[in-house]
Specification:
Length: 358
Amino acid sequence: MELDERKKKILYAIIQNYQETGEPVGSRTISKYLDVKLSPATIRNEMSDLEEMELIVQPHTSAGRIPTDKGYRLYVDDVLSEKELPATESDSGILVKRVDRLEELLIRMAKLLAVNTNYAAMITGPKTRKVKLKFIQLSPMGDGKILAVIVSEGNIVKNNILNIGEDISMDSILSLNLLLNRHLAGLTADEITLDVIASMKEEDGEHREIINKVLDAVAESIRKEDRVPIYTSGAPNIFKYPELTGGDKASELITTLENKEELGDIVREEGSSGEGRHDIQVFIGDEVPVESMKDCSVVTATYELGDGVQGKIGIIGPKRMDYEKVVDTLQNTMSQLDSIFDRKNTSDDSDDGGGDKE
């Protein structure tokens, strides 16, 4: 069955009305939303077709229809991809005032997003896309153990005690230090390829197991460094939407937003409709990689602070959220962050040129 223009208009009218009311939508209501005159009987027939196409569903026998995840996905992909959302002024402009601590700025940003959208908001601290290893220092500890000190960009130091099963000579330790740093220093985790590992093991086949343990420690250190803080705001807004408060839904959502650990799964995921829209991604229902948010939609955007430093902004709300308003708000927020950090970098460069300071 084909989704022609008339069916699409009726689907979008159902979605837009449901966004406003949260109530199932009937044929008479739809007739008031359309720019063409159709009888309630014709609309009912088209709605039956849309139901067969799994774009809408009738929650109760005598009720109207509500959109399905599939219907929302069609709406999001179609409407947002075609509509160029204008850059408009928003309340986020107050953030341009000087903020000395990045954490303070991000917390304030999350609060403004929650206020401006009436949904819950999340924002991550920035991180570099590719964390590079600076150097590795192995030292013997006796009792079949060695200490592996791993230093990455930013002089982040991780100490790892590795159990190698037997003592190792100082000459072997020195040799391994030279080998590891010659091959690994300056590389990101992605650049430590199988070819690099094979080359190291070919040079020192005697200590293959030690090399494996050191590589595991390097990977774990970089992975931990990749973790970023997540700031949230607006959790009480969830109670404004009845579909998110039934049973234990609200308490589970609040717990997720407060604990924040599972939110990292959203940050790491790639969405279905972000391409070509400044990395704006939309997750609808079952697409959300967090179990307590399967009745929600989540819209995320990537902000850039230069030199490969990125962070994520996200809006969490019901599936009937106002997607256009949310995307517009996220775009404005990203522009505000760009402006803030462009000004800060310019100011820092100017300060650096003024000579030494006390």
